[in-house]
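Quick start: read one record
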Amino acid sequence: MLVVGATGVLGMEVCRQLAAAGKKVKALARTSSQKEKVNALHELGVETVTGDMKDPQSLYQAFQNVDAIISTATSTISHQEGDSIETVDLAGQLKVAEAASAVGLQHVVFISFPPFLSVTPEFPLQSAKRAVENRLKSKNFTYTILQPTYFMEIWLGPVLGFDYAHAKAVIYGEGKNKISWISIKDVAAFAVASLDNPAAQNAVIQLGGPDDLSLLDAVEIFEQESGQTFELQNVPDEALRAQIAAAPDSLGKTFSGLMIGLNEVGRIDMKETLRNFPIQLTSVREYARQMIAAEVARHLRRPAFALSSQFP
């Protein structure tokens, strides 16, 4: 079993869950991967093998004596020089599919995302995901394509303007569209379960969480749990559409497209999926409580002189 994208947030969680389940796990790592992340994999008991999605020969070597892979790699959250939607999410993932087929792998699990409504402007990551999905379906191995909706840790987190620590949030569009937010650890759980579940064989599975909540609903939950009133900043839909047209690169266009998608992506009915995969899903309220508790703990760990400066 090998994980592609193992040094990323989702890939690391997949490795953690595989190791906890007693699976023998390998992780693809570049020579330029951060040492702290590689060390964290080793601490989990994961063996790292050197390889790069942009180097087909290294993939052929890394995939030897492997029966299945889970590919979570993306250039959207963290990337190194030379990484882009085109080189990683498109060409790199296509090379993974070709190498997996060439060496006779039995099963490939690929993390994608659901198709948005047709009114959403096409953007690079969306095009890349669909192209890779089509390639996987044409190969001689078993495929599982998981299409999780928006990750709550990313889109309800400070990186994209949901700053719960300071009770501020950016609302993209009207913020009223209901979304089935999902936790990264739950996506990892589905990926791990897909390896041994017949329902995952040659299947495309959309994934969501237990709640259908708008951005504004999520703000209200955080307000209830923290006891603070959030300051909201609205980015109108027309501004997002102008932004996607003016974005200078594929990453900028992708994030603008995903922001537009917040107001267009549909809800995901998980009843049938949960019958096949009995996974306990994380709610937005549970996530809010965890984040607020972590923030409180962080403040309590601050040096006494720093706290005293706030409370004269």
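Confidence is low (pLDDT under 50) at residues 305-312.
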